[in-house]
Amino acid sequence: MAEEPVHYEVFIRRTVASGWSLELATEARLQALQCAGDALNETRAVGVKVTKESRQASGRYASVVILSKGDLEPPRRKGRASEESTAPLCVSPSDLYSLHARERIARLLEGWLVRQNATAFELLHRPDLVERLDAAGLELQHAVQKVAIPEAQATGASTHEIIRRYQKLVEAAVARLLGDGRKGVFPNLGRDGLAACLRRAQEASDPAYVLGATVAGVLAAEMGWTAKITRLLDIAESAGETPGRSLLLQVIEQPLAEILGGRAVLAEFLGGSPDLGGSLALMVRLVAPEVVEALARSDPGLARAIPPVAPEAARLARWLEEPAFEAVRAALGRRILAELHGPRRLHPDDPTAEIHTLRALARLLILSPRIASADDVQAAFVDRSRRLVGADFVQTYVEQCGGGAIGEAQALVRLAENVVGAANKRAAGAWLKAAVGSLRFERDLRAGAESPAAKLAQLAELQRSLARAGLEPEERGEVAAKLGAVADAVEIKSHLIASIARAPGGAAHRLLLLLRLASGDSVPFGPVTTRARAEVLKLVRDAGVRAELAAAQPGEMDRVRQMLQSAGLAA
Predict the structure, then answer these.
(1) How far apart are CA 73 and CA 289, in angstroms?
(2) What is the 3-state secondary structure (H, E, C) of 413-449?
(3) What is the number of other CB atoms lying within 10 angstroms of the CB of residue 322?
(4) φ and ψ at 525, to 5 degrees?
(5) Cβ–Cβ under 8 Å, residues 222 and 248
(6) Which of 90, 198, 248, 560 could form a disulfide with 95 if both were Cys (CB 3.0 to 4.6 A apart)?
(7) Each residue's pLDDT tens digit, 212-253
(8) How far apart are CA 538 and CA 411, in angstroms?
(9) Count of CB atoms within 10 A of residue 315's CB?
(10) Residues 78-119 pLDDT 10s
Protein backbone atom coordinates (compact mmCIF):
# COMPACT_ATOMS: atom_id res chain seq x y z
CA MET A 1 0.00 0.00 0.00
CA ALA A 2 1.47 3.40 -1.02
CA GLU A 3 2.20 5.93 1.67
CA GLU A 4 -0.01 9.00 1.87
CA PRO A 5 1.74 12.24 0.77
CA VAL A 6 3.22 14.09 3.76
CA HIS A 7 4.83 17.51 4.08
CA TYR A 8 5.75 19.84 6.94
CA GLU A 9 4.82 23.49 7.40
CA VAL A 10 6.66 26.01 9.58
CA PHE A 11 4.64 28.91 11.01
CA ILE A 12 6.13 31.87 12.91
CA ARG A 13 4.89 34.85 14.90
CA ARG A 14 7.25 37.76 14.21
CA THR A 15 6.12 39.93 17.12
CA VAL A 16 4.10 39.45 20.28
CA ALA A 17 1.10 41.19 18.72
CA SER A 18 1.23 39.58 15.26
CA GLY A 19 -0.51 36.43 14.03
CA TRP A 20 0.89 33.27 12.49
CA SER A 21 2.48 33.40 9.03
CA LEU A 22 3.81 30.56 6.89
CA GLU A 23 7.61 30.58 6.75
CA LEU A 24 8.40 27.28 4.98
CA ALA A 25 6.73 24.22 3.46
CA THR A 26 8.95 21.19 2.89
CA GLU A 27 8.90 17.41 2.70
CA ALA A 28 11.99 17.18 4.95
CA ARG A 29 11.10 16.92 8.63
CA LEU A 30 14.59 17.86 9.85
CA GLN A 31 14.69 20.92 7.60
CA ALA A 32 11.35 22.12 8.99
CA LEU A 33 12.47 21.65 12.60
CA GLN A 34 15.79 23.36 11.88
CA CYS A 35 14.07 26.32 10.22
CA ALA A 36 11.84 26.78 13.26
CA GLY A 37 14.79 26.63 15.63
CA ASP A 38 16.74 29.15 13.55
CA ALA A 39 13.84 31.59 13.53
CA LEU A 40 13.84 31.60 17.34
CA ASN A 41 17.63 31.60 17.77
CA GLU A 42 18.09 34.48 15.30
CA THR A 43 15.23 36.44 16.98
CA ARG A 44 13.28 36.59 13.73
CA ALA A 45 10.26 35.25 15.59
CA VAL A 46 8.85 35.20 19.11
CA GLY A 47 6.96 31.96 18.56
CA VAL A 48 7.16 29.02 16.14
CA LYS A 49 5.22 25.86 15.40
CA VAL A 50 5.72 23.00 12.96
CA THR A 51 2.81 20.95 11.63
CA LYS A 52 2.80 17.63 9.83
CA GLU A 53 0.33 17.68 6.95
CA SER A 54 -0.87 14.23 5.74
CA ARG A 55 -3.11 13.88 2.73
CA GLN A 56 -6.08 11.62 3.35
CA ALA A 57 -7.98 9.45 0.90
CA SER A 58 -10.69 12.10 0.73
CA GLY A 59 -8.15 14.59 -0.65
CA ARG A 60 -8.09 16.71 2.50
CA TYR A 61 -5.05 17.19 4.73
CA ALA A 62 -4.88 16.17 8.37
CA SER A 63 -2.71 18.50 10.42
CA VAL A 64 -0.73 17.53 13.54
CA VAL A 65 1.44 19.96 15.50
CA ILE A 66 4.83 18.30 16.11
CA LEU A 67 6.64 21.31 17.59
CA SER A 68 5.59 24.56 19.29
CA LYS A 69 7.92 26.97 21.08
CA GLY A 70 7.95 30.55 22.29
CA ASP A 71 4.99 32.91 22.61
CA LEU A 72 2.12 31.03 21.02
CA GLU A 73 -0.73 33.41 21.83
CA PRO A 74 -0.99 37.22 21.83
CA PRO A 75 -1.13 38.75 25.30
CA ARG A 76 -4.60 39.35 26.69
CA ARG A 77 -5.53 42.93 27.43
CA LYS A 78 -7.30 43.57 30.67
CA GLY A 79 -8.88 46.42 32.54
CA ARG A 80 -7.33 49.83 32.24
CA ALA A 81 -4.76 48.79 29.64
CA SER A 82 -7.56 47.72 27.31
CA GLU A 83 -9.42 50.97 27.85
CA GLU A 84 -6.30 53.01 27.11
CA SER A 85 -5.55 51.04 23.95
CA THR A 86 -8.96 51.91 22.48
CA ALA A 87 -8.60 55.62 23.17
CA PRO A 88 -7.94 57.72 20.05
CA LEU A 89 -4.30 58.69 19.57
CA CYS A 90 -5.06 62.12 18.08
CA VAL A 91 -7.82 64.29 19.50
CA SER A 92 -6.64 67.84 18.69
CA PRO A 93 -4.82 69.48 15.76
CA SER A 94 -1.64 69.85 17.84
CA ASP A 95 -1.47 66.03 18.18
CA LEU A 96 -0.83 65.80 14.43
CA TYR A 97 2.52 67.55 14.90
CA SER A 98 4.08 64.85 17.07
CA LEU A 99 6.87 62.65 15.70
CA HIS A 100 4.71 59.51 15.41
CA ALA A 101 1.85 61.41 13.80
CA ARG A 102 4.20 62.93 11.21
CA GLU A 103 5.63 59.50 10.43
CA ARG A 104 2.12 58.11 9.94
CA ILE A 105 1.14 61.03 7.70
CA ALA A 106 4.30 60.54 5.63
CA ARG A 107 3.40 56.88 5.05
CA LEU A 108 -0.27 57.50 4.28
CA LEU A 109 0.41 60.33 1.82
CA GLU A 110 3.79 59.14 0.55
CA GLY A 111 2.88 59.15 -3.14
CA TRP A 112 1.26 62.59 -3.05
CA LEU A 113 4.12 64.12 -1.02
CA VAL A 114 6.72 62.75 -3.45
CA ARG A 115 4.83 64.27 -6.37
CA GLN A 116 4.77 67.62 -4.54
CA ASN A 117 8.44 67.28 -3.61
CA ALA A 118 7.48 68.00 0.01
CA THR A 119 7.61 66.40 3.45
CA ALA A 120 4.96 65.80 6.10
CA PHE A 121 6.53 68.67 8.09
CA GLU A 122 5.88 71.05 5.19
CA LEU A 123 2.32 69.81 4.75
CA LEU A 124 1.56 70.56 8.41
CA HIS A 125 3.07 74.06 8.23
CA ARG A 126 2.30 75.36 4.72
CA PRO A 127 -1.21 76.70 3.96
CA ASP A 128 -0.59 76.45 0.19
CA LEU A 129 0.16 72.72 0.43
CA VAL A 130 -2.93 72.08 2.57
CA GLU A 131 -5.11 73.85 0.00
CA ARG A 132 -3.52 71.79 -2.76
CA LEU A 133 -4.19 68.54 -0.86
CA ASP A 134 -7.78 69.57 -0.15
CA ALA A 135 -8.29 70.24 -3.85
CA ALA A 136 -6.86 66.80 -4.73
CA GLY A 137 -10.13 65.24 -3.58
CA LEU A 138 -9.72 61.53 -2.89
CA GLU A 139 -6.11 61.62 -1.61
CA LEU A 140 -7.10 62.86 1.84
CA GLN A 141 -10.19 60.66 2.00
CA HIS A 142 -8.17 57.53 1.18
CA ALA A 143 -5.57 58.42 3.81
CA VAL A 144 -8.30 58.73 6.47
CA GLN A 145 -9.75 55.38 5.44
CA LYS A 146 -6.33 53.67 5.59
CA VAL A 147 -5.88 54.66 9.22
CA ALA A 148 -9.52 54.25 10.29
CA ILE A 149 -10.16 50.70 9.07
CA PRO A 150 -7.29 49.00 11.00
CA GLU A 151 -8.16 51.03 14.10
CA ALA A 152 -11.78 49.89 13.86
CA GLN A 153 -10.70 46.27 13.58
CA ALA A 154 -8.37 46.59 16.57
CA THR A 155 -10.83 48.39 18.85
CA GLY A 156 -14.18 47.00 17.68
CA ALA A 157 -15.52 50.52 17.10
CA SER A 158 -17.56 51.53 14.07
CA THR A 159 -15.47 52.33 10.99
CA HIS A 160 -17.76 55.20 10.01
CA GLU A 161 -17.57 56.67 13.49
CA ILE A 162 -13.76 56.65 13.42
CA ILE A 163 -13.71 58.14 9.90
CA ARG A 164 -16.01 60.97 11.01
CA ARG A 165 -13.80 61.62 14.03
CA TYR A 166 -10.66 61.85 11.91
CA GLN A 167 -12.41 63.99 9.30
CA LYS A 168 -13.36 66.50 12.02
CA LEU A 169 -9.79 66.46 13.30
CA VAL A 170 -8.39 67.09 9.80
CA GLU A 171 -10.92 69.87 9.16
CA ALA A 172 -9.96 71.55 12.45
CA ALA A 173 -6.23 71.31 11.65
CA VAL A 174 -6.75 72.69 8.12
CA ALA A 175 -8.92 75.55 9.41
CA ARG A 176 -6.33 76.41 12.05
CA LEU A 177 -3.43 76.49 9.57
CA LEU A 178 -5.32 78.45 6.88
CA GLY A 179 -6.69 80.88 9.45
CA ASP A 180 -3.29 81.55 10.97
CA GLY A 181 -1.85 82.05 7.50
CA ARG A 182 -4.52 84.65 6.58
CA LYS A 183 -4.09 86.48 9.91
CA GLY A 184 -0.31 86.80 9.41
CA VAL A 185 0.59 84.74 12.48
CA PHE A 186 3.62 83.28 10.70
CA PRO A 187 6.64 85.60 10.32
CA ASN A 188 8.46 85.75 6.98
CA LEU A 189 12.18 85.05 7.17
CA GLY A 190 13.10 86.98 4.05
CA ARG A 191 11.14 90.07 5.08
CA ASP A 192 11.54 90.12 8.85
CA GLY A 193 14.97 88.58 9.39
CA LEU A 194 15.91 85.60 11.56
CA ALA A 195 16.16 87.46 14.88
CA ALA A 196 12.65 88.95 14.52
CA CYS A 197 11.22 85.59 13.46
CA LEU A 198 12.71 83.90 16.52
CA ARG A 199 11.43 86.63 18.80
CA ARG A 200 7.87 86.46 17.42
CA ALA A 201 7.86 82.64 17.62
CA GLN A 202 8.99 82.67 21.26
CA GLU A 203 6.20 85.10 22.12
CA ALA A 204 3.55 82.78 20.56
CA SER A 205 1.58 80.18 22.53
CA ASP A 206 3.08 77.39 20.36
CA PRO A 207 6.60 78.54 19.38
CA ALA A 208 7.55 75.36 17.46
CA TYR A 209 4.38 75.56 15.35
CA VAL A 210 4.94 79.23 14.42
CA LEU A 211 8.66 78.85 13.72
CA GLY A 212 7.97 75.63 11.78
CA ALA A 213 5.65 77.57 9.45
CA THR A 214 8.43 80.13 8.91
CA VAL A 215 10.95 77.44 7.98
CA ALA A 216 8.41 75.62 5.78
CA GLY A 217 7.73 78.89 3.98
CA VAL A 218 11.42 79.14 3.08
CA LEU A 219 11.41 75.53 1.78
CA ALA A 220 8.40 76.26 -0.45
CA ALA A 221 10.65 78.07 -2.93
CA GLU A 222 13.05 75.07 -3.23
CA MET A 223 11.99 72.19 -5.48
CA GLY A 224 14.94 69.79 -5.13
CA TRP A 225 15.89 67.77 -2.05
CA THR A 226 19.47 68.98 -2.22
CA ALA A 227 18.29 72.59 -2.39
CA LYS A 228 16.03 72.06 0.62
CA ILE A 229 18.85 70.54 2.68
CA THR A 230 21.17 73.37 1.68
CA ARG A 231 18.59 75.97 2.65
CA LEU A 232 18.01 74.35 6.05
CA LEU A 233 21.75 74.31 6.76
CA ASP A 234 22.00 77.95 5.66
CA ILE A 235 19.34 78.89 8.20
CA ALA A 236 21.08 76.89 10.94
CA GLU A 237 24.43 78.53 10.20
CA SER A 238 22.94 82.02 10.15
CA ALA A 239 21.61 81.57 13.69
CA GLY A 240 25.04 81.91 15.30
CA GLU A 241 24.46 82.51 19.02
CA THR A 242 21.10 84.23 18.49
CA PRO A 243 18.64 83.76 21.40
CA GLY A 244 16.30 80.98 20.42
CA ARG A 245 18.97 79.02 18.51
CA SER A 246 18.10 75.77 20.30
CA LEU A 247 14.44 76.13 19.29
CA LEU A 248 15.48 76.82 15.69
CA LEU A 249 17.70 73.72 15.52
CA GLN A 250 14.90 71.65 17.06
CA VAL A 251 12.53 72.83 14.31
CA ILE A 252 15.08 72.39 11.48
CA GLU A 253 15.77 68.85 12.69
CA GLN A 254 12.22 67.75 11.79
CA PRO A 255 12.23 68.37 8.00
CA LEU A 256 15.89 67.39 7.76
CA ALA A 257 15.16 63.99 9.35
CA GLU A 258 12.16 63.45 7.05
CA ILE A 259 14.14 64.31 3.93
CA LEU A 260 17.16 62.15 4.80
CA GLY A 261 14.94 59.32 6.01
CA GLY A 262 13.27 59.04 2.60
CA ARG A 263 14.49 56.98 -0.33
CA ALA A 264 14.35 59.87 -2.80
CA VAL A 265 17.36 61.54 -1.22
CA LEU A 266 19.62 58.58 -2.08
CA ALA A 267 19.56 59.40 -5.77
CA GLU A 268 19.81 63.18 -5.49
CA PHE A 269 21.63 64.48 -2.44
CA LEU A 270 24.15 61.64 -2.22
CA GLY A 271 24.48 61.84 -6.01
CA GLY A 272 27.25 60.33 -7.93
CA SER A 273 26.91 56.77 -6.65
CA PRO A 274 25.32 54.66 -9.39
CA ASP A 275 24.05 51.90 -7.11
CA LEU A 276 22.63 51.25 -3.67
CA GLY A 277 25.87 49.94 -2.17
CA GLY A 278 27.69 53.21 -2.76
CA SER A 279 24.74 55.22 -1.46
CA LEU A 280 24.58 53.25 1.79
CA ALA A 281 28.32 53.61 2.27
CA LEU A 282 27.95 57.38 1.82
CA MET A 283 25.13 57.46 4.36
CA VAL A 284 27.34 55.69 6.91
CA ARG A 285 30.06 58.20 6.12
CA LEU A 286 27.65 61.03 6.89
CA VAL A 287 26.74 59.68 10.31
CA ALA A 288 30.08 58.25 11.43
CA PRO A 289 32.84 60.01 9.47
CA GLU A 290 35.47 59.41 12.15
CA VAL A 291 34.93 55.62 12.06
CA VAL A 292 35.08 55.59 8.26
CA GLU A 293 38.31 57.58 8.17
CA ALA A 294 39.97 55.41 10.82
CA LEU A 295 39.11 52.15 9.03
CA ALA A 296 39.96 53.55 5.60
CA ARG A 297 43.48 54.42 6.78
CA SER A 298 44.08 50.87 7.98
CA ASP A 299 42.28 49.09 5.11
CA PRO A 300 42.77 50.44 1.55
CA GLY A 301 40.17 47.97 0.26
CA LEU A 302 37.57 49.49 2.56
CA ALA A 303 38.52 52.97 1.38
CA ARG A 304 37.83 51.95 -2.23
CA ALA A 305 34.38 50.60 -1.26
CA ILE A 306 33.27 53.98 0.13
CA PRO A 307 32.97 56.79 -2.42
CA PRO A 308 34.08 60.30 -1.40
CA VAL A 309 31.33 62.67 -0.28
CA ALA A 310 30.32 65.80 -2.15
CA PRO A 311 31.06 69.18 -0.48
CA GLU A 312 27.41 69.70 0.51
CA ALA A 313 27.25 66.22 2.05
CA ALA A 314 30.46 66.91 3.97
CA ARG A 315 28.86 70.09 5.28
CA LEU A 316 25.86 68.09 6.48
CA ALA A 317 28.16 65.55 8.16
CA ARG A 318 29.67 68.34 10.25
CA TRP A 319 26.22 69.46 11.36
CA LEU A 320 25.23 65.92 12.27
CA GLU A 321 27.77 66.09 15.06
CA GLU A 322 25.39 68.54 16.78
CA PRO A 323 23.49 66.96 19.71
CA ALA A 324 20.36 68.75 18.45
CA PHE A 325 20.39 66.61 15.27
CA GLU A 326 20.12 63.22 17.00
CA ALA A 327 16.81 62.53 15.22
CA VAL A 328 18.48 63.12 11.85
CA ARG A 329 21.16 60.55 12.65
CA ALA A 330 18.45 58.12 13.78
CA ALA A 331 16.53 58.68 10.52
CA LEU A 332 19.64 57.91 8.49
CA GLY A 333 20.24 54.77 10.57
CA ARG A 334 16.67 53.58 9.95
CA ARG A 335 17.05 54.27 6.23
CA ILE A 336 20.27 52.24 6.09
CA LEU A 337 18.70 49.27 7.90
CA ALA A 338 15.52 49.49 5.80
CA GLU A 339 17.56 49.28 2.60
CA LEU A 340 19.56 46.34 3.95
CA HIS A 341 16.30 44.55 4.73
CA GLY A 342 14.92 45.48 1.30
CA PRO A 343 15.15 43.45 -1.92
CA ARG A 344 17.36 45.82 -3.92
CA ARG A 345 20.84 44.56 -4.76
CA LEU A 346 23.78 46.67 -3.60
CA HIS A 347 25.57 46.15 -6.94
CA PRO A 348 23.11 44.59 -9.44
CA ASP A 349 25.78 43.75 -12.04
CA ASP A 350 28.67 42.79 -9.78
CA PRO A 351 28.09 40.06 -7.16
CA THR A 352 31.74 40.15 -6.05
CA ALA A 353 31.48 43.86 -5.30
CA GLU A 354 28.19 43.12 -3.50
CA ILE A 355 30.01 40.88 -1.04
CA HIS A 356 32.90 43.32 -0.56
CA THR A 357 30.57 46.26 0.06
CA LEU A 358 28.40 44.25 2.45
CA ARG A 359 31.47 43.25 4.42
CA ALA A 360 32.60 46.89 4.58
CA LEU A 361 29.16 48.05 5.70
CA ALA A 362 29.08 45.39 8.42
CA ARG A 363 32.40 46.58 9.84
CA LEU A 364 31.33 50.21 9.73
CA LEU A 365 27.94 49.65 11.37
CA ILE A 366 29.30 47.39 14.10
CA LEU A 367 31.83 50.08 15.01
CA SER A 368 29.20 52.85 14.90
CA PRO A 369 26.73 52.03 17.70
CA ARG A 370 25.03 55.42 17.50
CA ILE A 371 23.69 54.55 14.02
CA ALA A 372 21.87 51.40 15.14
CA SER A 373 21.96 48.82 17.92
CA ALA A 374 24.03 45.67 17.52
CA ASP A 375 20.88 43.51 17.46
CA ASP A 376 19.32 45.60 14.68
CA VAL A 377 22.51 45.45 12.64
CA GLN A 378 22.74 41.69 13.13
CA ALA A 379 19.13 41.18 12.01
CA ALA A 380 19.66 43.35 8.92
CA PHE A 381 22.74 41.43 7.81
CA VAL A 382 21.12 38.05 8.46
CA ASP A 383 18.27 39.16 6.22
CA ARG A 384 20.65 40.44 3.53
CA SER A 385 22.75 37.24 3.76
CA ARG A 386 19.65 35.22 2.96
CA ARG A 387 19.66 36.81 -0.49
CA LEU A 388 23.34 36.04 -1.00
CA VAL A 389 22.75 32.29 -0.72
CA GLY A 390 19.81 32.31 -3.14
CA ALA A 391 20.19 30.32 -6.35
CA ASP A 392 20.14 33.34 -8.68
CA PHE A 393 22.89 35.20 -6.80
CA VAL A 394 25.13 32.15 -6.30
CA GLN A 395 24.91 31.14 -9.97
CA THR A 396 25.87 34.62 -11.17
CA TYR A 397 28.60 34.90 -8.55
CA VAL A 398 30.43 31.67 -9.37
CA GLU A 399 30.15 32.28 -13.12
CA GLN A 400 31.75 35.71 -12.71
CA CYS A 401 34.56 34.41 -10.51
CA GLY A 402 35.82 31.96 -13.16
CA GLY A 403 38.83 29.75 -12.47
CA GLY A 404 37.10 26.48 -13.27
CA ALA A 405 35.85 24.07 -10.63
CA ILE A 406 38.53 25.00 -8.10
CA GLY A 407 37.82 28.71 -8.64
CA GLU A 408 34.10 28.15 -8.00
CA ALA A 409 34.87 26.28 -4.77
CA GLN A 410 37.18 29.08 -3.61
CA ALA A 411 34.44 31.63 -4.39
CA LEU A 412 31.89 29.63 -2.40
CA VAL A 413 34.24 29.51 0.59
CA ARG A 414 34.49 33.31 0.44
CA LEU A 415 30.70 33.49 0.24
CA ALA A 416 30.30 31.28 3.31
CA GLU A 417 32.85 33.44 5.14
CA ASN A 418 30.83 36.61 4.47
CA VAL A 419 27.27 35.51 5.29
CA VAL A 420 25.83 35.54 8.81
CA GLY A 421 23.07 33.54 10.45
CA ALA A 422 23.03 29.81 11.12
CA ALA A 423 20.55 29.04 8.34
CA ASN A 424 22.54 31.09 5.82
CA LYS A 425 25.79 29.40 6.84
CA ARG A 426 24.15 26.02 6.25
CA ALA A 427 22.87 27.13 2.86
CA ALA A 428 26.35 28.33 1.87
CA GLY A 429 27.78 25.05 3.17
CA ALA A 430 25.29 23.12 1.05
CA TRP A 431 26.42 25.00 -2.08
CA LEU A 432 30.05 24.26 -1.23
CA LYS A 433 29.39 20.56 -0.58
CA ALA A 434 27.57 20.29 -3.90
CA ALA A 435 30.47 21.96 -5.71
CA VAL A 436 33.33 19.85 -4.29
CA GLY A 437 31.23 16.70 -4.37
CA SER A 438 30.38 17.00 -8.05
CA LEU A 439 31.86 14.79 -10.74
CA ARG A 440 32.99 17.93 -12.57
CA PHE A 441 35.16 19.02 -9.63
CA GLU A 442 37.01 15.70 -9.49
CA ARG A 443 37.28 15.44 -13.27
CA ASP A 444 38.75 18.94 -13.60
CA LEU A 445 41.29 18.31 -10.84
CA ARG A 446 42.38 14.97 -12.31
CA ALA A 447 42.51 16.06 -15.95
CA GLY A 448 43.62 19.69 -15.61
CA ALA A 449 46.75 21.01 -17.31
CA GLU A 450 48.45 22.09 -14.08
CA SER A 451 51.07 19.94 -12.40
CA PRO A 452 49.91 17.46 -9.70
CA ALA A 453 51.85 19.40 -7.05
CA ALA A 454 50.04 22.64 -7.99
CA LYS A 455 46.63 20.93 -7.90
CA LEU A 456 47.35 19.42 -4.48
CA ALA A 457 48.55 22.79 -3.16
CA GLN A 458 45.29 24.42 -4.32
CA LEU A 459 43.26 21.72 -2.58
CA ALA A 460 45.31 22.17 0.60
CA GLU A 461 44.73 25.94 0.61
CA LEU A 462 41.02 25.36 0.01
CA GLN A 463 40.87 22.96 2.95
CA ARG A 464 42.66 25.45 5.23
CA SER A 465 40.26 28.24 4.21
CA LEU A 466 37.33 26.19 5.56
CA ALA A 467 38.31 27.25 9.08
CA ARG A 468 37.50 30.88 8.18
CA ALA A 469 34.13 30.07 6.62
CA GLY A 470 32.38 29.43 9.96
CA LEU A 471 30.62 26.26 8.82
CA GLU A 472 29.25 23.70 11.24
CA PRO A 473 31.86 21.06 12.22
CA GLU A 474 29.92 18.31 10.44
CA GLU A 475 29.70 20.26 7.19
CA ARG A 476 33.34 21.34 7.41
CA GLY A 477 34.35 17.72 7.99
CA GLU A 478 32.37 16.53 4.95
CA VAL A 479 33.94 19.11 2.67
CA ALA A 480 37.44 18.46 4.05
CA ALA A 481 36.99 14.70 3.57
CA LYS A 482 35.91 15.19 -0.04
CA LEU A 483 38.91 17.41 -0.72
CA GLY A 484 41.13 14.71 0.76
CA ALA A 485 39.51 12.09 -1.48
CA VAL A 486 40.02 14.19 -4.61
CA ALA A 487 43.64 14.80 -3.61
CA ASP A 488 44.02 11.03 -3.21
CA ALA A 489 42.81 10.49 -6.79
CA VAL A 490 45.21 13.14 -8.10
CA GLU A 491 48.20 11.66 -6.21
CA ILE A 492 47.45 8.07 -7.22
CA LYS A 493 47.27 9.07 -10.89
CA SER A 494 50.55 11.01 -10.73
CA HIS A 495 52.46 8.69 -8.29
CA LEU A 496 53.84 11.85 -6.68
CA ILE A 497 54.91 10.28 -3.36
CA ALA A 498 56.70 7.40 -5.05
CA SER A 499 58.42 9.82 -7.44
CA ILE A 500 59.70 11.94 -4.56
CA ALA A 501 60.89 8.90 -2.60
CA ARG A 502 62.90 7.62 -5.62
CA ALA A 503 64.09 11.03 -6.83
CA PRO A 504 67.82 11.55 -7.20
CA GLY A 505 69.42 13.91 -4.73
CA GLY A 506 70.06 14.03 -1.03
CA ALA A 507 67.96 12.21 1.52
CA ALA A 508 67.33 15.43 3.45
CA HIS A 509 65.81 17.08 0.37
CA ARG A 510 63.50 14.10 -0.26
CA LEU A 511 62.48 14.00 3.39
CA LEU A 512 61.64 17.69 3.41
CA LEU A 513 59.42 17.29 0.36
CA LEU A 514 57.64 14.31 1.87
CA LEU A 515 57.28 16.02 5.23
CA ARG A 516 55.50 18.94 3.54
CA LEU A 517 52.99 16.39 2.28
CA ALA A 518 52.75 14.56 5.61
CA SER A 519 52.13 17.75 7.59
CA GLY A 520 49.30 18.94 5.32
CA ASP A 521 51.32 21.92 4.15
CA SER A 522 51.08 21.18 0.42
CA VAL A 523 48.22 18.63 0.30
CA PRO A 524 44.86 18.30 2.12
CA PHE A 525 44.74 16.11 5.18
CA GLY A 526 43.49 12.66 4.23
CA PRO A 527 44.79 9.56 2.47
CA VAL A 528 47.71 11.41 0.82
CA THR A 529 49.10 12.71 4.13
CA THR A 530 48.74 9.22 5.60
CA ARG A 531 50.77 7.66 2.76
CA ALA A 532 53.35 10.45 2.96
CA ARG A 533 53.80 9.84 6.70
CA ALA A 534 54.30 6.13 6.05
CA GLU A 535 56.94 6.89 3.41
CA VAL A 536 58.71 9.30 5.78
CA LEU A 537 58.88 6.64 8.51
CA LYS A 538 60.18 4.13 5.98
CA LEU A 539 62.97 6.49 4.94
CA VAL A 540 64.06 7.51 8.44
CA ARG A 541 64.31 3.83 9.44
CA ASP A 542 66.58 3.07 6.49
CA ALA A 543 70.20 2.77 7.69
CA GLY A 544 71.62 4.28 4.51
CA VAL A 545 69.32 7.28 4.76
CA ARG A 546 70.19 7.78 8.42
CA ALA A 547 73.89 7.71 7.59
CA GLU A 548 73.36 10.23 4.82
CA LEU A 549 71.40 12.51 7.15
CA ALA A 550 74.16 12.32 9.75
CA ALA A 551 76.64 13.61 7.17
CA ALA A 552 74.32 16.40 5.97
CA GLN A 553 74.84 20.10 6.60
CA PRO A 554 73.74 21.19 10.13
CA GLY A 555 71.20 23.71 8.82
CA GLU A 556 69.60 21.14 6.54
CA MET A 557 69.36 18.61 9.35
CA ASP A 558 67.75 21.22 11.64
CA ARG A 559 65.01 21.80 9.07
CA VAL A 560 64.37 18.05 8.87
CA ARG A 561 64.07 17.82 12.67
CA GLN A 562 61.66 20.76 12.81
CA MET A 563 59.49 19.25 10.08
CA LEU A 564 59.49 15.87 11.81
CA GLN A 565 58.32 17.52 15.03
CA SER A 566 55.58 19.54 13.33
CA ALA A 567 54.34 16.40 11.60
CA GLY A 568 54.36 14.51 14.92
CA LEU A 569 56.95 12.00 13.67
CA ALA A 570 59.93 12.93 15.85
CA ALA A 571 61.19 10.19 18.13
Answers:
(1) 45
(2) HHHHHHCCCHHHHHHHHHHHHHHHCCHHHHHHHHHCC
(3) 13
(4) -65, 140
(5) no
(6) 90
(7) 999 999 999 888 888 899 999 999 988 887 788 889 999 999
(8) 39
(9) 16
(10) 444 444 445 556 778 888 888 888 888 988 898 899 888 899
